[in-house]
Write a structure and sequence with these properties.
Elements: H1 2-7, E1 11-13, H2 23-40, E2 47-49, E3 51-55, H3 61-74, E4 78-82, H4 86-95, H5 101-107, E5 116-120, E6 123-125, H6 126-134, E7 138-140, H7 145-148, E8 152-154
Parallel strand pairs: 1-2, 3-4, 4-5, 5-7, 6-8
């Protein structure tokens, strides 16, 4: 955050939340993000501190819900990595009764009244695309084609 302020760039920043190390890890990272927000949000009118959950596979459903609930409470968007690889989507489906990462977020109610910036989104089905449209999710695409070989869409 300090480097962004010093360099003069405009940025949305966040301490990425994961809870693979348990509830204490989630609380520590959430506190770090809040401290960054208190110190840097609005700095020179160029810095916005937002919320971020890394991905479905590094956050429990409870952590995902908390990140989104907090974002709604304080009025900031959420950045999250979604459906980056086939193995990520298949893993999510096996952990969550056949649901993709976007479908899980939808089932949790996380996307209601939220602004989401979703990175990647290269492995989608028609229900995922409907969710993206319904909630006007912003796609922050990154080219993963070197590992994916092509964009994957399944009906």
């Amino acid at each position: 955050a300090r480097a962004c302020v010093d360099s003069g760039i405009r940025a949305y920043l966040s301490r990425c939340i994961v809870d693979v190390d348990g509830p204490d890890g989630y609380l520590r990272r959430a506190k770090e993000n809040e401290n960054m927000r208190l110190k840097y949000d609005g700095a020179d009118g160029r810095i916005k501190v937002i919320n971020s959950a890394h991905a479905e596979y590094t956050c429990s459903p409870e952590a995902l819900k908390k990140v989104y609930d907090n974002a709604r409470e304080i009025g900031v968007p959420v950045h999250i990595h979604i459906s980056e690889t086939i193995s990520e989507v298949n893993g999510c489906k096996s952990r969550h009764n056949g649901r993709t990462p976007l479908q899980l977020l939808n089932d949790l109610g996380a996307l209601e009244q939220s602004v989401t910036y979703a990175a990647h989104c290269v492995v989608l089905d028609s229900e995922d695309i409907d969710i993206i449209k319904k909630y006007n999710i912003f796609l922050t695409l990154k080219n993963n084609f070197s590992s994916q070989k092509d964009l994957v869409y399944s009906q």
